[in-house]
Amino acid sequence: MEHVSGFSLPNSGHNRDAEASKMGMWLFLFTEILLFGGLFIVYMVYRSLNPEAFLMASFELNVWMGTTNTVVLLVSSMTIAMSITAIQKGNRKLSIQLMVLTLVAAVIFMVVKYFEWSAKIEHGLFPGQAVYDNLPPGESLFFFLYFFMTGLHVFHIIIGSVVIGFAIHRTAKGRTTKEKYTLTENAGLLWHLVDLIWIYLFPLFYLIH
Amino acid sequence: MTSKAMSLSYLQGKNGIFSWIFSLDHKRIALLYLYSILTFFITGATLGVLMRLELLNPGKDLMEAQTYNQVFTMHGVIMIFLFIIPSIPAIFGNFFLPIMLGTDDVSFPRLNLLSWWIYIIGAIMALSTLLWGDGPADTGWTFYAPYSVKTGTNVTMSVLAAFVLGFATILTGLNFIVTIHRLRTPGMTFLKMPLFAWALYATSWIQLLATPIIGITLLMITAERVFGVGLFDPSIGGDPILYQHLFWIYSHPAVYIMALPAFGIISEILPTFANRTIFGYKAIAFSSLAIAFVGYFVWGHHMFTAGMSGTARIIFSVMTFLVAIPTSVKVFNWVATLYKGSINVQPPLLYALAFIFQFMIGGLTGVVLGALAADIHLHDTHFVVGHFHYVMFGGTGFALFGALHYWYPKMWGRMYNKLVANIAFVFLFIGFNMLYFPMLVLGLMGMPRRYYDYLPEFHVPNMISTYGSWILATGLLLMFGNLIAGAWRKREPIGRNYWKTGITLEWQTLSPPPVSNFDRMPVLPKNGPYDYDNKPEIEE
Ligand code: HEM
Ligand SMILES: [Cu+2]
């Protein structure tokens, strides 16, 4: 800010404050967890109201594809964490490479998801399709929640990827350095959250029998 | 002297519309919020007065039943999502939190500006429902399923608007929490923060913890409508009551998003005009946190008649009674602050006193509604309408008016006409109570809410109520007119501490404050923020 009077406060909101940025990110992640938390509550309530139907419907899901995606996301969480360590040690090139690897993992995840969803849609299981409309009570709820929750998760994968893209750009430009790497760190935090949510989605939809 | 002559106020310097709508200065953003929020308040109030006009006589006077449904929904949506939830934090929190903490801005100035833009986009979305299709939603502001999924009106857009507006709230809350943690001036510990900052801190946490739940609930309603499936439809295994639970898990805590900042304002106004320290600083600070906490476990009191187990109802009822305890702790502390103070009766104090009076009626009628047996009779009657207007309008609304009159000289370096302000207050106070007290009576007599018509035996209280709405509207016009006219009044010397007895840090800087808030280092009173015995001497 302009200090016309020649006086300036020591604790300015316009100072660079990595601690504050990180705190802001944590708070934001907190709201994200609550957002999905609302959905988990709905899932739990409906599962307990329709246990049979949820069980039957869950057999339709492809456990292999789910497992693949789980592994892919776990690996990507590792690469992003390593990329932060790399930049802390001042190795910009390695940091960028690891972030690119994370993005590759994101793409693999999306491709697998694409095949998974298309298979369901071919079977007419998307809300509004013929088969879906004639599902027994409860099963349609399962598929609605399946598409809604994994869809919202995919949306977060996209957002996370964009943020990582920014972090790569900043590092390439040399604006992220050994001393200031808050953006990379925050991108990592966001990515871990995306991963964490999947870790809950996967057993809820694919595994519980 | 030289430094004073050189300090440009935040209102000077760059000008033109873009220097405002893209400003990163928390004070300019606060004014952006002020003007937009008050515009929506006036819009909403106009709708309210129109509804009262319809209810002047039994039968149809002015509008069709369906129009009435849309009007009360629009009125509710505007008043809740566009007016009362953002109001005090976005306006006065933005303006004064950094100054009270002795810093020059919030932690994330860019997010702050973004939040205003999101707010405006949400507002445009909400108001756009007037223009196309079957018109604005007719569900009531609560959007209860299954009706909200079935109606042909523009529910989807209203719901999405509320979702978007939630983001603005979250960003403001997040910003304030980080600001309070990171930017307090050296020497200001948490327990030396002004109570307004404490109130904002508790509010911000609720904003963060509750808003995502309504966000996701509203998204579900949207998805239901877009894909034409019933997530809350019992015929496919869903449960409409679940929607109500999710809705109120947010919307009850949201009541404290509306009320806590108002408590903060009152805790600032009273010491200044009693010229003595606040009574029970810690009790007031911590009772905010207690209210925020207990407030999470009472949402079921909105659903006593909707189908819940007896045990659940008793628990929710008891928890609701518990909220009354920290709330009355505050009221007793405020009254004790006035005791033996040297009271200086000024417009802001009048509003604060009206707040205490009206908020108590609102709170005590809330306890009545929290009692199971009474609620079965009173649920969905005009008693509820009276109750929440007493809390939100008589409480928070009046606190907001009080804050406007309290900080006006600081924000603009000008003054309004005090005599007119007092007259406007009398109109507002009488008008308000005449408008809403009869509603409590009508509710006890059994008049339901959300109907454009009523039985002839309810006529007299309805007439009184509508006359009250005219007196209130006159008061609003007088008040706003007077505040606006202040811009053209001859300048009188305002000085740093216009009321002479202000003690928090904003009274140590120039009026209006310079761009970077302070022209010299602010000085903290020795023992806490309201230490009138060691009030720092401030040179002009
Ligand atoms: C000039 C001022 C106002 C007037 C005349 C007014 C009048 C009314 C009336 C007549 C109703 C509908 C009652 C019914 O038939 O159910 C109503 C509902 C409502 N009002 Fe106000 N009101 C005013 C200000 C406010 C303010 C300041 C707020 C909030 C801060 C507010 C929030 C609400 C809400 C949430 C509803 C419920 C809407 C619904 O049923 O969905 N009002 N008001
Ligand atoms: Cu409530």
Task: Please name the defining characteristics of this protein.
heterodimer, A: 209 residues, mainly alpha, B: 540 residues, Cytochrome C Oxidase, Chain A, disordered N terminus, binds protoporphyrin IX containing FE, binds copper (II) ion
Description:
- The complex is a heterodimer of chains A (209) and B (540).
- Chain A has one domain (14-206): Four Helix Bundle (Hemerythrin (Met), subunit A), CATH 1.20.120.80.
- The mean pLDDT of chain A is 89.
- Chain A has 7 helices and no strands.
- Chain A is an all-alpha fold.
- Chain A has helices spanning 18-49, 51-58, 63-88, 92-122, 130-133, 139-172, 182-207.
- The N and C termini of chain A lie far apart (60 Å).
- Chain A is elongated and about 70 Å long.
- With 540 residues, chain B is mainly alpha-helical.
- Chain B has one domain: Cytochrome C Oxidase, Chain A, CATH 1.20.210.
- In chain B, 66% of the residues lie in helices and 0% in strands.
- Chain B contains 17 helices and no strands.
- Mean pLDDT of chain B is 92; it is low at 1-5.
- At the A-B interface, α1 and α6 of A face α1, α8 and α9 of B.
- The structure holds protoporphyrin IX containing FE (HEM) and copper (II) ion.
- Residues 45, 48-49, 51-52, 72-73, 75-76, 79-80, 83-84, 140-141, 385, 389, 392-393, 397, 449-450, 469, 472 of chain B line the site of protoporphyrin IX containing FE.
